[in-house]
Structures
1.
Amino acid sequence: MDRRSILKALSVSGFVALGSGSVMRQLLQSKGSDLAVVPVAEDKAVSALPDVPQQLADIVEEHAAAADFHEVSAPSRMENKVADLQADLEAVKADPQVKDYMKKIRYFEGVFEDDYFISAEEFKLVKQTLARMSRVQRTVGHGNFNLISFDQMIKYGKNFSQVGDFTKVELEYLEKLFFADAHVYGFYGEKVMAGLTQRIPSKDLLKVPKTGHFLFRGKSLAFYEKLRKGVGDDIVLTSGIRGTVKQMYLFLSKVAQAEGNMSKASRSLAPPGYSYHAVGDFDVGKVGFGYRNFTEDFAETDVYKKLQDLGFLTLRYTDDNQFGVRYEPWHIQVV
């Protein structure tokens, strides 16, 4: 059975709406791809969620095999299994802990009783360190700031008076931030950057014209070019490679905006070391859509709908994700 027919069968149960359809489209786009669920912390709410991608993959694979042998009952059997899976998911979501978890990622800007707040003294240090990192960014430029390593950042502090030396306290804090267990904040992704001073080799990069951003040569660049070819000139790269320093800067900015609420910050942005932007993922948007490309409004654009129709959507953070992160329809999963 072809992709359109499978989607039609699934739509009978209404289940294709899960994760704005991205889970199903991912499975249909790449049969046989790596569908392993990212390991998460032993959180009761997260661990209670069904392994939806794998179960859907099994249903689709079984249906495809049955269809190949022209089994008459295959479509109805598939619909029944999808309906059962949907019922299981709804039952789990009725659990108070799961409901609380889903509420947090859907109302990510809210403040919750068990959110993790830093002390007033630490908050002062965050703003002090953030100000110095901001001076580094102004010195090297926004594009280059995406790529510089931790050691390079320190050298800019030493060599440029407008930046000034990073203090021992500031550096120790950034090191502590990188090696902290983000699960404490409520972020349940895996760490993808092993070392604080890890560098991104320049030979592996390409600056994408008219965007100010970089992509990894190979899989990431090829996939972005495929999107451009399929969708047209209306799609644009809004964020590519982000090294550890840039992710630290963005995360500390979120912490500052959240008045020291680390949990609130991590619902909007992966903590340093946990961002897949460092290893291949990237963000896309609609040309001329501005900051709204980083809101749920992007999911209503013609660009997003074309990505759906062409089967290109493989989102890292669906609206039912297990990372503890807000829904990000703009974040394309590559690795």
Note: Residues 1-41 have pLDDT under 50 and may be disordered.
2.
Amino acid sequence: MSYKITNAISSSRVPAWGNKKKYIAVHYLGVVGQAHDLASDGCGAHFYIYWDGTIYQRCSLDAVPWAVGTAGYYTQKHPEANNYNTISIEMCCKCDGNAALASDPKWYFTKETQEACVWLVRHLMGQLGIAADHVLRHYDIVNKVCPAPYVHNNSYRTSWKWDEFKKKIAGSGDILPTSTKPWYRVRKTWKNASSQIGAFKTMKKAKQCADQHAGYHVYNDAGKKMYTSAKLPYKVRPKTENVPIRTGPAKTYSAARTFLQSGKYEIVEEKNGFGKLKSGVGWVYLKKVERV
């Protein structure tokens, strides 16, 4: 089943920016209810999942909400995961006992919330190149009982155990179950990690992704370039403004230059390999390489 992520992104109340996106942390809301906003002090998460499985994205992935830190009184358990390298997901929850206590054993998640969370985690793993062993409970990062149903692990009502959740996110498809196997990452350059548009278990899938975007390459985990986009980045058009392309694309700059001999053409490099058609005035190109 596929889910829609409802866009509720806002920079309001975001305390910091520059998330490195190396880990995913799963939380519970901690109260019986449903909400998807940051607190006034910046505490919260990137995503919120309601009882019926509705997913809200409150923060951009570059945001750093206060989500997994020690807050001055918890003890750091994980050697690396922190607010600045972790994407957080809040699962709305229910409780048949004392909702004022995280220690109460009667906290639980609905089936719909958990299934949506599995989908979202797998989606983020593929998008960001995060392996299943980098998907953590808040409790795995600091000694906070969060998410309570997955810390108690008592399968109360509809709640799964944490091991069940982890098995579900490591299922079939393009999601890699452990970080010991290679990923194929699609980026502009290896050093420009923020340009990454996908990470895949198979080279075939990575190539398909790269071929949709001019100027992108496939890299292995060691940073070695394994494949270059086959998208043709250069096109030639008449110099007259607002006239559609009449000649074909060329993969190399030198090949494109062959169209310039008459002096009537110019080379343009289109953003992501595509021109933008503006109604009534023809093709509009976003970056000129040379004007003859």
Note: Helices lie at 111-128, 138-141, 148-152, 162-169, 203-210, 253-257.
